[in-house]
Design brief:
ABC transporter involved in vitamin B12 uptake, BtuC, two-stranded antiparallel ribbon, 2 strands, membrane, 348 residues, transport, 15 helices
Length: 348
């Protein structure tokens, strides 16, 4: 008779640093990272100049023709890495908000932080007249942070509750969407077209100069999010339980919201608002691992989805580079419909 196992299996690492890793989460993370790396190699191969795996590897490790190295390292690699890092950022941001609100719809797409970043970018482009990358990125970052603080203050009443945060966020998002439409309608046609194109969300033409600062910021914040994982898990048990563990609930919640907002605003500042990833990746990872204790599988799922969507955007229409936001928005609509249908069936 096989032995009876109670609970989940863990991998224990002994040494100077002792760790206990959930075996299933580790396996899912490893598989997703392997799939993402395979997609990354494929993403470096496709384009107007088709390359093989040996040519890509030679370009990455410095033994290739100058033209091949330029195509792979300077043109395609920033896009591939940005898709993976930004996807991980959006997924972890969504996981934080869904944990804080205890609702699978509590992502920055739904609550309104993405709309705030878009509003900030529109103000920079249409009101301030700035078309530089620094100006638009700064506007998007400031807009996202300002929207987060406004939603937090309006939702605060002897503390904040997840449901109230979602309701206030949806209301603010609706107001900002109307304001964005007014800004676009009152601006010049050519500027409005540029702003609208940015608002779709795209990685087309991204460079190291644009992506590297945002990617470094995201990596630092992912470390901060991992450090806040234990307080977040305690807060999921309720405020009383969290306080019993010595956690300052409101201070911790505010810190988590700021981390999650910047994780959303940094990719948005570079690529524009990209939907679906923050909404779906945490829930898909949760279904695969059956555990919400780690951000690692969530980040790996976000990287895989974002990179897969970007590659699909390049292949849907031959000869045309669609914005990745078009693909994620289409998939996100189907996913959101499925979530709402499943919740309606559970309620009935």
């Amino acid at each position: 008779m096989p032995p009876v196992r109670f609970g989940r299996r863990y991998i224990r690492l002994k040494g100077p640093v002792k760790l206990r890793i959930d075996a299933k989460s580790f396996a899912v993370t490893a598989i997703l990272l392997g799939a993402a790396l395979a997609l990354a190699v494929f993403g470096l191969m496709i384009g107007s100049l088709r390359l093989g795996v040996p040519e890509v590897l030679a370009a990455l490790f410095g033994d290739a023709a100058k033209m091949t190295r330029t195509v792979v390292v300077e043109w395609r690699l920033p896009r591939v890495l940005a898709a993976m890092v930004f996807g991980a950022a959006l997924a972890v941001s969504g996981a934080i908000f869904q944990s804080l609100t205890r609702n699978p719809l509590g992502s920055p797409d739904i609550i309104g932080f993405t709309s705030g970043s878009y509003t900030g970018a529109l103000i920079a482009m249409l009101v301030a007249g700035s078309t530089s990358f620094i100006g638009v990125a700064s506007g998007a970052l400031i807009g996202g942070l300002a929207t987060a603080m406004l939603i937090y203050l309006l939702a605060f009443r002897k503390g904040t509750q997840g449901f109230r945060l979602i309701i206030v966020g949806v209301a603010i998002s609706t107001i900002l969407s109307s304001a964005n439409a007014v800004l676009l309608l009152r601006s010049k046609a050519e500027v409005a077209l540029t702003a609208a194109a940015w608002g779709v969300g795209s990685l087309n033409g991204i460079s190291w100069e644009q992506s590297l600062p945002a990617m470094l910021t995201v990596l630092l914040l992912l470390v901060c999010a991992a450090a806040m994982g234990r307080p977040l898990r305690a807060m999921e048990l309720g405020e009383d339980a969290a306080k019993a563990h010595g956690i300052r609930v409101e201070r911790t919640r505010l810190a988590l919201i700021l981390i999650a907002v910047v994780l959303t605003a940094a990719p948005t500042a570079v690529a524009g608002p990209i939907s679906f990833v923050a909404l779906a990746a945490p829930q898909i990872a949760l279904r695969l691992t059956k555990s919400a204790r780690s951000f690692a599988p969530v980040a790996a799922m976000g990287a895989f989805i974002m990179l897969g969507a970007d590659i699909l955007a390049q292949r849907v229409v031959p000869g045309t580079l669609l914005p990745v936001g078009v693909v994620t928005l289409s998939l996100g609509g189907l996913y959101l419909t499925g979530v709402l249908f499943r919740q309606a069936r559970s309620a009935s």
